[in-house]
């Protein structure tokens, strides 16, 4: 295989972005078919992909098209399972947006199907592993001179959310990125997680608990304190400070000019997640293409997606229990050991 000929399933917001990305910025890959349950959505996707793109409303038909040799899934999380399983059944590499699926039980079905196929076919779109800043922090940790990490202090702040955003989504949609990227960063696994509810912001819509503090401990005893605060009102503000035995490493912030004006020194905070992580999506999709062409996967595996889902379930449970909940995965199968 020297080129991925992709069927993209789900032509919504990020689906449209990925079509544009693949057609215009990614090498050795092309979207040849698009699918959306609503024909109008699929047609919009085809318009972005360009002339000759096939339009489907049934994911199995798109995935099994003989001209298709790879799949990208960008439906909402609740509809990831079927196309991912269809791609595995067809033996075609599949990149699925995060989360792998919305429930741990469904993630397990995917893990079992991939292991039964005997091939590494599934990559999950946790793009922070491809962010330049996180990669630099990881390199510094791995260098060793800072000593062992002991504490991580993180913030995941957003300007505001729409009224459909729920208390659980602070975990499943927002903290899910830290749930995946932090164990990768420090080469460890979650052991127990707890969610504490501080005073709720007057800007949170009715019924939403915001901010939330998530305390997550790894198997070797490293503690993360994560503030999720989705009504901060001042921008998209991602921070991660790693306190090690001999020093402290801070995740670089996007670089904007520092200005001195009207008795103030100030700099900008990024507006939203699209702009903050724009470059990492390009790197992520190119890396998936490069691996898939060699019959491999990079980034987060189906197992990583399953573990993220188990961890999220434990945190959501703690949102009501208030106590630390254990993260029980049963151990990484040999198939997924690196
Ligand atoms: P969206 O705008 O709602 O797009 C989803 C699209 O899929 C819609 O066009 C929807 O059609 C279509 N669809 C729904 N069920 C389908 C099915 N069974 N088969 C084919 N198409 C189907 O959602 P989004 O914001 O793009 O999010 C999509 C996924 O990307 C989610 O899993 C989300 O978590 C993930 N995401 C990841 C990041 C990241 O940072 N990595 C950022 C944003 C989103 P209708 O609208 O007509 O129902």
TrEMBL record:
It comes from the Bacteria. It catalyses: myo-inositol + NAD(+) = scyllo-inosose + NADH + H(+); 1D-chiro-inositol + NAD(+) = scyllo-inosine + NADH + H(+). Pathway: Polyol metabolism; myo-inositol degradation into acetyl-CoA; acetyl-CoA from myo-inositol: step 1/7. One of its GO terms (biological process) is inositol catabolic process. It is an enzyme of class 1 (oxidoreductase). Gene3D superfamilies: Dihydrodipicolinate Reductase, domain 2, NAD(P)-binding Rossmann-like Domain. SUPFAM superfamilies: Glyceraldehyde-3-phosphate dehydrogenase-like, C-terminal domain (SSF55347), NAD(P)-binding Rossmann-fold domains (SSF51735). Residues 4-126 form the Gfo/Idh/MocA-like oxidoreductase N-terminal domain. GO terms for molecular function: inositol 2-dehydrogenase (NAD+) activity; nucleotide binding. Keywords: NAD, Oxidoreductase. Its EC number is 1.1.1.18, 1.1.1.369. Residues 134-249 form the GFO/IDH/MocA-like oxidoreductase domain. Belongs to the Gfo/Idh/MocA family. Homotetramer. Involved in the oxidation of myo-inositol (MI) and D-chiro-inositol (DCI) to 2-keto-myo-inositol (2KMI or 2-inosose) and 1-keto-D-chiro-inositol (1KDCI), respectively. PANTHER family: INOSITOL 2-DEHYDROGENASE, PTHR43593. This is Inositol 2-dehydrogenase/D-chiro-inositol 3-dehydrogenase.
């Amino acid at each position: 295989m020297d080129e991925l000929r992709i069927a993209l399933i789900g032509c919504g917001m990020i689906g449209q972005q990925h079509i544009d990305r693949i057609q215009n910025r990614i090498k050795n890959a092309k979207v040849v078919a698009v699918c959306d349950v609503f024909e109008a959505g699929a047609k919009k996707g085809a318009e972005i992909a360009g002339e000759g793109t096939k339009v489907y409303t049934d994911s199995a038909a798109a995935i099994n098209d003989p001209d298709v040799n790879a799949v990208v899934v960008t439906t909402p999380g609740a509809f990831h399972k079927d196309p991912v399983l269809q791609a595995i059944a067809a033996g075609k590499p599949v990149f699925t947006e995060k989360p792998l699926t919305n429930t741990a039980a469904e993630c397990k079905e995917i893990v079992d199907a991939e292991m039964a196929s005997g091939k590494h076919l599934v990559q999950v779109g946790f793009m922070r592993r491809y962010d330049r800043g996180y990669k630099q922090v990881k390199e510094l940790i791995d260098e060793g001179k800072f000593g062992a990490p002991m504490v991580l202090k993180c913030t995941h702040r957003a300007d505001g959310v729409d009224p459909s955003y729920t208390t659980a989504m602070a975990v499943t949609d927002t903290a899910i990125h830290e749930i995946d990227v932090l164990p990768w960063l420090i080469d460890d696994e979650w052991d127990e997680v707890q969610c504490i509810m501080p005073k709720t912001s007057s800007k949170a819509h009715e019924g939403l608990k915001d901010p939330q503090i998530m305390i997550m401990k790894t198997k070797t005893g490293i503690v993360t304190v994560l503030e999720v605060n989705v009504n901060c009102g001042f921008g998209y503000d991602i921070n991660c400070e790693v306190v090690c035995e001999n020093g402290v490493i801070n995740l670089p912030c996007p670089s904007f000019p520092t200005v001195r004006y009207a008795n103030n020194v100030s700099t900008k905070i990024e507006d939203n997640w699209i702009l903050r992580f724009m470059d990492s999506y390009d790197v992520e999709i190119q890396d998936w293409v490069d691996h898939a062409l060699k019959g491999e996967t990079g980034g987060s595996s189906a197992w990583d997606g399953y573990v993220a889902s188990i961890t999220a379930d434990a945190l959501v449970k703690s949102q009501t229990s208030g106590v630390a909940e254990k993260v029980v995965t049963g151990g990484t199968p040999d198939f997924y050991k690196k």
